[in-house]
Amino acid sequence: MQISTVTGQLATCLETVEKALPVRTTVPVISNILLQIDSNKLIFSATNHEIFITVSMDHEGSDSGSILLPPKIVDIVRYFPTPSVSIDINWENYRLDISGGSARFHLYGSSSDDFPLNSVVSASSDETAESFSFDLSSFKKILKEVVFAASTEETRPAFNGVLFTFKDQTLTLTASDTYRLVVSKIQDESWSFKEVRCLVPAKALREFLRIAGEGHKGITVGYQNSLLSVDFGNIYFASRLLEEKYPDVSGVIPGDYKTRVVIERKLLEDTISRAALLAEGKNQAVNIAVKDNSFEVRVSSQEGSMEEYLPVEQDGESIELFVNSRFVLDILKIRDEEKIIIDFHGEGGPLIFRLMDDSSYLYLVLPIKKVN
Amino acid sequence: MKKERDILLCDLDAFFASVEQHDRPELRGKPVIVGGSPEGRGVVSTCSYEARKFGVHSAMPMKKALSLCPSAIVVRGRMSRYKEIAGQVRQIFECFTPDIEVVSIDEAYLAFPAGEGLNAGQVIHDHIKKELTLPISVGVSTNKLLAKIACELAKPDRVKTLWKESVNSKLWPLSIRVLPGIGPVTAEKLNRFGIKTVKDLAAYPLESLSRVLGNNASIIHGYAHGIDERSLEFERDVKSISEETTFSDDLYDINTIYAILLELSAGVGYRLRFANLTSRTITIKLRFSDFKTITRGKTLPEPVDSDSEIYKITRALFGKHRGKPPWRLIGVQASGLEEGGQLSLLSPSETEEKEKKLTEARDKLHKKYGSEVIFQARRLKKGK
Amino acid sequence: MSYDQLTGQNELRRMLSAALENGKLSHAILLSGPSGSGKTSWGKLLSQAILCPDHKGIKPCMICRSCRIFLSGNHPEFYYLEPEKRKLKTKQFRLIREHLYLGGNTKVCLIDQAETMTAETSSSLLKILEEPPKGLTFILLADQPGALYDTILSRCQRYALQPMSSSEIYELLVKNNKADEDKADLLARLSSGLPGYAFDMADDADFDERFREAKTLAYNIATGRDSAVQLLSWAASLAERDDLIYLLELVALIYRDGLMQSLCRRGDNIYRFEKPLVWTETVSSAGLEEAILLINTTIYEVVATNVNRRLLLEKMLIMLQRRLAL
């Protein structure tokens, strides 16, 4: 059969599924891209067995069938010289002839029988399944505000994930690397979730953010059968879940603050960025002191020292502590609010970053214990 | 300008044995040996003065000790009790001076303003006799070396001084072995040059001595003249965290060493994290079967506290300095400690850590391969 | 190798089947047995059975999708690790580690030559064994289970492969079309009860040639028909050969066969072969035993030390002749 299509459009599809190809694998079949053809669609799929990406594009044709494409095809199409390309598939021997203008490639595909498609897309019904509709760019923003805090170290597998907790009208996202913690809540009155928790590998979510593209459009986020999936029109993304138990972190968030400041986010970001120039070592420590409506940032290291003051609205007692400047910058950079609240809970207690008039988000950082 | 001070060395005589005799009156006046079991590689840890009369001394194999002194009462050591008593002794010291360098469980240097040493030594001696009924020897002088030698002269259970003025009469007649830094090997070397007593050493020209002793020559020459520049190292904070293991049998297998290093690294790492410290210098200690002991360290650009990082460094150090097997002891030390750990949401759950230590300790003896069978066909593969 | 082709090991088959049927199979299995005893084949069979939804005991159905992709090497939930450059490194383990924590499916991780794990790999494995993810079974294969950490051993259900009888190996070779009947007979005798070696020899294109040489060498030494000068020239030419070890091992196997013959002649007649591989009637069993040990020592010295091969071989040949030919 023959497929004729616009080269650019085909290349975009292939480049998107390519993101799911494994870097290295002992399972030969999954280093290929699955192409399924039906009467009006071309469906490309790839998996590294952690995430799964399917992209479909419209296509006029009458034939149907499926074949595994060798990964080389991505670059062949990407660098193809003509604006349109045609692909001939010989179903007898899985040979592919790719041609356009004077360029002509022969590739050897293979049978798709062994491709582990149904281990990912399971048709069986799942009692705990949940799904909801959302706007793509809002969902991306929410994910970005959470994923950065998940651990990339391998000592505790649970912290490599972002916890999705569905309950009633709320989806709560939690991420932590044991030194800091983000809790973000999304609410919608039309929702009525059963109580379900699922742990999604942060790595998979980062990959999702990379392929999701820009712009507003409706998406469906779903959970079923040990998969979290995001369906946005022609792209379907799914991630398998971590089977680990996520520790209960609710206990580490203290109730009342001892000191609260309201501070200009951008000013603080710039100040901490300057301080970080001198911060050193693994902990990148900066000294923060709050007293008399002044927010003082100091660093003293082998290379030199700095200090800077910012005016703040202070409520509560004076405080002084050390904190990792990177952890503070992470939150200041990812938020775009004008002002931000920082709650202190004594010298050894956490700092909690909150939004003005909005309790849906909090970022907690534990200080560095330092006695000088 | 260094202040002139009096330095005391206080040494609890036959400490472990004395504690046993203190706790169990029926042992008083009898030869008591604290140490390992007579089977295997048990050695005498401490013995009472009554046992010493039979020629028993510490580090002697238990078997030999019992053949010398069959009537000796052998007691298993109770380290926790000794530490408790040592703590009480320490408290008494602290009543007299804050400047204390603890050398070991039964030995400490104390510093006093010049002129007060002898009196203080006498008072401390009597105090410990009265409060704890433990024998203690006190050497009084103006530096560590002379205090140490004075203490040797004071044994048992007395207070002695050795001032600079008496170096000629008291120090010079002694064997060079009394000086720190002169072990049996160095002594042997020096003996060949006719240097037997401290006086011989003091009279020997420094330049010629350098050829024998290398860099240490001037320091040791100084010792021979009663000069010792070492200052007291006060233990204000913990300076290092270390763990070590002596093997019951000499070890030949590198994999076993790696397993033990991993365990020691985990132990040190755990204690670092528990105390919220990081370390800039990781050192391994290695003892060979001839008792030669080396320590080799590495100072790091970034302080560490994780087991795997410590293990990586110790393993590399071992690889570089492992010398010839067998090995008899291996240790891991973290120093250059910095306070200031990033606090974690999960305080290391103690049961979990304990369990981890337990399991890893059980791995200590990564067992050896089975013996060769009459025909081992495993090599029968092409191309090998 | 499929279930039907894996003959023998009836005890193991029975125990594993029972454990699988009763849900008593632990999440960590250790299969031990000497190199060549069939651990990898059995480990893979067990893996396939665990993954197959329709298995009967240790017998996979062979027709379901899981079995099909398992046999084509494409089962995504089958993780196979074997040493790289003689060690199982953490790096290898780390590649699959995070997948083991993904939920949803039955997973098997087969670790071949588990005793080659580095201390770090062992310790990573131990962490997973302590809190195993749901649905994951580890199968460890080891020649020397004693070389594994105690803490790993204590978490494993242990099974041992038994040496197979010559007739079982004969059957195995014939069934798998590895050799014709005559050669199968020979290989079965030479294999020391280890099917893996029988297969290796069967796959070796030069086997017949090498075996002929080994036989000549064994025979000449045992009968003392070579003069001292001839022995020395043997040593010189052997020392140059790439396949020296292989050849020496064959000679040792031939003597081992002779030893079996001479022992069985005296006692019960279990041994099913009539004709010895070489004529060794004049040789005492003690002499053969010494000869085998001597060859093994030489092999060890060639492999492990830098001693001049030729000198080693001269010494070996002269001593062999003295032991055997007098």
Describe the structure using short key phrases.
heterotrimer; A: 372 residues; alpha+beta; DNA Polymerase III, Chain A, domain 2; nine-stranded antiparallel beta sheet; eight-stranded antiparallel beta sheet; 17% helix; elongated; C: 326 residues; alpha/beta; Rossmann fold; Zinc Finger, Delta Prime, domain 3; 2 domains; five-stranded parallel beta sheet; 54% helix; 8% strand
Rg of chain B, Å, rounded = 24 Å
Unreliably modeled segments of chain B: 348-352, 358-384
Strand content of chain C: 5-15%
Termini of chain C, distance in Å?
A: 47 Å
Would you list the SSEs of chain C in sequence order as H and E?
Answer: HEHHEHEHEHEHHHHHHHH
Helix content of chain C: 40-55%
What do we call the CATH topology of the largest domain in chain C? Rossmann fold
Specify the structural class of chain C: alpha/beta
Specify the helix fraction band of chain B. Answer: 25-40%
- So what's the overall shape of chain C? elongated
- Oligomerization state of this entry? heterotrimer
Short note summarizing the structure:
Chain B is α+β, with helices and mostly antiparallel strands and 384 residues long. Chain B has helices spanning 15-23, 49-52, 62-68, 79-96, 117-132, 144-154, 167-171, 184-192, 198-203, 206-213, 217-224, 254-274, 307-321, 350-362, and strands at 5-12, 32-35, 44-47, 73-75, 100-104, 107-113, 136-141, 159-161, 240-251, 277-288, 293-304, 327-339.
